[in-house]
Design a protein that fits this description.
Layout: H1 3-9, E1 18-23, H2 37-54, E2 58-62, H3 76-92, E3 97-100, H4 106-116, E4 120-123, E5 129-132, E6 135-138, H5 141-151, E7 156-161, E8 166-167, H6 174-184, E9 189-192, H7 203-212, E10 218-220, H8 229-233, E11 239-241, H9 257-271
Parallel strand pairs: 1-2, 1-11, 2-3, 3-4, 4-7, 7-9, 9-10
Antiparallel strand pairs: 5-6, 5-8
Helix pairs in contact: 2-3, 2-9, 3-4, 4-5, 6-7
Length: 280
């Protein structure tokens, strides 16, 4: 076991994790900001409590409703609002909490996580580059890891490979991108998703990533449902789930407790209630 793997296994030592999304309502300064942080906190904590009750293993807080997303660093108001929201979620649940600052502000995510006690962050483009609706987004793995070291935190980095809502540069194959993020970018886990939010992850992509970096910790990043859980989770070490456990299956609509429960039931049939990573 390497030091890289320890970061994730120290968060979820007993079983493969199913992480639920908390999609925050629009935050201050974003186009659809509703001028009420109270409403933001209320929705976020209600979603966190529903995910906890359903049996999820972790929660990832994301500024999903701040569309259209900024290509570079987010404003100070977004950082402050997300930090407050992450604290509210952390206090509402005993689960490990993570942060994703869209579109790709890994530095803000590391800072928020360190200040709030969050255990992990998700980074859409950690190494390499991707063509997105924000233009060319380039990873800053070297800067991100140095900031993490400087702040003194042990925040795990979950790095997307060929992130959704984006196109890789010509000639970039998913296996090589995964290897670069894991071995050169020193990500603590790799996230493999479908082409967009809620779109099922292709088994061929999971197989290609596993073949390229068999030692990597791999999470399915989109499209997990009760119907396909057994297929995709058989190829991964866990999953991040959003759309399928929200009202009407719509991203950003808030957690539907019944959908969340059904997803966990299906996932545990596949993964086993106490399945440890690496078990047959």
């Amino acid at each position: 076991m390497t030091e890289i793997e320890v970061a994730i296994e120290s968060i979820w030592p007993e079983r493969a994790p199913i992480v639920g999304m908390v999609h925050l309502m629009p935050l201050p300064g974003s186009p659809r900001w509703g001028a009420s942080m109270g409403a933001v906190f209320s929705r976020a904590t209600a979603d966190a409590e529903a995910l906890t009750k359903a049996g999820f293993d972790g929660i990832l807080v994301e500024n999903y409703a701040d569309r259209p997303f900024l290509k570079g660093p987010v404003p100070a108001g977004t950082v402050a609002a997300m930090a407050a929201a992450v604290l509210a979620v952390r206090d509402a649940t005993g689960l490990p909490v993570g942060v994703n600052v869209l579109r790709n502000d890994a530095h803000a995510a590391v800072a928020i996580a360190t200040a709030t006690g969050a255990r992990f962050i998700r980074v859409n483009v950690h190494a390499g580059s991707m063509w997105t609706d924000q233009g060319l987004v380039e990873g800053r793995a070297a800067d991100t890891l140095r900031l993490r070291s400087k702040l003194g935190g042990r925040v795990a980095i979950l790095a997307d490979v060929h992130v959704k809502h984006a196109t890789p540069p010509s000639g970039s194959d998913i296996g090589t991108a995964a290897s670069d993020s894991w071995r050169r970018g020193l990500a603590d886990a790799l996230v493999v998703s479908g082409s967009g939010t809620g779109v099922p992850t292709e088994t061929r992509d999971l197989e290609a990533v596993r073949a390229a970096v068999p030692e990597a910790y791999i999470l399915v990043g989109s499209g997990v449902t009760p119907e396909n859980a057994s297929n995709v989770l058989a190829l991964a070490d866990g999953a991040i789930v959003g759309s399928s456990v929200m009202w009407g299956g719509i991203a950003g609509a808030g957690i539907d407790a019944d959908r969340a429960r059904l997803l966990i039931e299906a996932a545990r049939v596949c993964l086993g209630s106490e399945l440890k990573r690496g078990d047959p």
